[in-house]
Fold YozE SAM-like domain-containing protein.
Amino acid sequence: MKPTISLAQLEQLRRNAKRLARDKCIPLHEAQARIAADCGYRNWSQLVRGGDSAKVPTRVPAASSIDARTRHYLHGDQSETDVAQYFCVMCDQMALAEHFFDGMHDREKSVERYLRSALNFEVWSPAELRNLRRPGNPTNVLSEDVAAYHEARVAKEASRSPFNRWILLQINRDEPIGDLARDVKSDRDFPVSEASLEELIDYLSSQGAVDGAIRAMRDAHAEFLKCGPQVG
């Protein structure tokens, strides 16, 4: 028979799981699974339901209707037990919606964190997903930001100048032009739609570029004018 867990004990177990995750450098869900097993439960969700039952008596559903797998939350996913809370991967805890927009986390990086975790979840093997579940279309507090992010990426790609497209093809060159190409690719603020050599050099200068980078830009632009029309 499983031990009865009070709400106070449940809160303590939540803190214990967070401490275990930090001490052992393991994911929080794994720490929660260990805590649940130590308490005689199959998984953390079952333990939480046991604790919640101390607060609000509910009809026990048929065993066949219970999905015993642990709910997996991506960054920004809404809590299944409290619709006012959303999971913050960066803080490894549930938080109110305003937490994601109050400046504590960079909003673009927050969206990118969600996209990375969503991609990782999609490529996990069946073995890795055996004890995890996530609804097909869960509510996520970042959904509007994610849509805007994708739209901005599409617009930025469409605005790239022929020179910008050409320079990005040079990233594997082991010479100054290749170094410049790699810098251009990694610079989020680089004016991708700009094709004027003068404007490009002005931008580099405003960023404190060294003389070598300026020369590389002049050489790259001259090479582009020579062969650019043949580049797709």
